[in-house]
Amino acid sequence: MTSRHQTSFLFDLDGTLVDSVYDHVLAWHEALTAEGIELSVWRIHRKIGMSGGLFANMLLREIGADIGAERVERLRHRHAEAYNSRSQTIRPLPGARELLAYLTESGIPWAIATSGRMETAGRVLDHLGVDRTKVPVITRDLVKYAKPDPDLFLAAAEALGVDAANACVVGDSIWDMLAARRARALGIGVLSGGYGQEELERSGAYRVYEDPADLLYHIDEVGGRR
């Protein structure tokens, strides 16, 4: 008999494990408004999940504004300040802590890979109860490119010592699913970030669940056996 490949899980953070997507949207809206840029919040939401620099570049290009590097960096810092001012009210999504505890107790490797930088992710990770001395956390600061490039998930798999092709990427956005496909991992979508099931499936999700609690309830469907 041949031994089965060990499943591992690579998690996005915002909208996947913590209820923070709309805080990011409002923080970006505040940053853009401070720069004299008027943009509807729904347009901002469609880009959440990308790296901050790529996000700013795409938004500014859409409205035909100057996209100089200095302005992009200024927007990124404004966003981080606005987001961090809201971070104390951000909470884990239903079932997030329980899901991570289940994986840990079952000996199933898991890591976090987020397009956010540690300056915004740090406090949220603390709210989630993630011990960064024991769990690999790959942020935008550690890779050349963020989502939809696969670098974050590839780095997270490497940190776990697993093959990304045997990993499940759990995310809430189309950018997560596109990055998962490019990393040759299986994509699992959750609806807790505001993207619809069909959008996630078109981007590569082979299963879609409501939130971490729903994923935990169906964990056997995605290879999360003890």
TrEMBL record:
Gene3D superfamilies: HAD superfamily/HAD-like, Putative phosphatase, domain 2. InterPro entries: HAD-like_hydrolase_sf, HAD-like_sf, HAD-SF_hydro_IA, HAD_sf, PGP-like_dom2. GO terms for cellular component: cytosol. GO terms for biological process: DNA repair. SUPFAM superfamilies: HAD-like. Pfam families: Hydrolase (PF00702). Keywords: Hydrolase. One of its GO terms (molecular function) is phosphoglycolate phosphatase activity. It comes from the Bacteria. This is HAD family hydrolase.
